[in-house]
Amino acid sequence: MEKRIALIGIIVEDTTMIEQLNRLLHDYSEYIIGRMGIPYKERGMNIISVALDAPMPAISALSGKIGALSGMQVKTIYAKSKDE
Q1: Beta strands 72-78 and 3-12: pairing type?
Q2: 3-class DSSP assignment, residue 27
Q3: Number of Cβ within a 10 Å radius of residue 67
Q4: Can you list the domains of the chain with their CATH numbers?
Q5: pTM
Q6: At 9, is the secondary structure helix, strand, or coil?
Q7: Which helix (H) or strand (E) element contains residue 25?
Q8: Which residues, by range, are in coiled-coil regions (predicted)?
Q9: How does pLDDT run across 2-16, given as a tens digit for each residue?
Q10: Quick one: CA dihedral 48, 27, 13, 16, positive or negative?
């Protein structure tokens, strides 16, 4: 299956959900190229970016599962494939 490069941007508004988020990221760790988290204490939230090299179904599944967690805002962007 063709793999794509993607970046998932996550804004965590409910920091009590961090453990569940980390569990999901661990479950998909084989696809994660890198991640960066920025705590924004003044606003009581965290901003996280996760870079992936994965099949489209895995990227979509992870993004959807994160979005289903309470207090998470998620957006995913994809690099154009070489055919596009």
Answers
A1: antiparallel
A2: helix
A3: 14
A4: 3-78 (3.30.70.1150)
A5: 0.90
A6: strand
A7: helix 18-27
A8: none
A9: 899 999 999 999 999
A10: negative
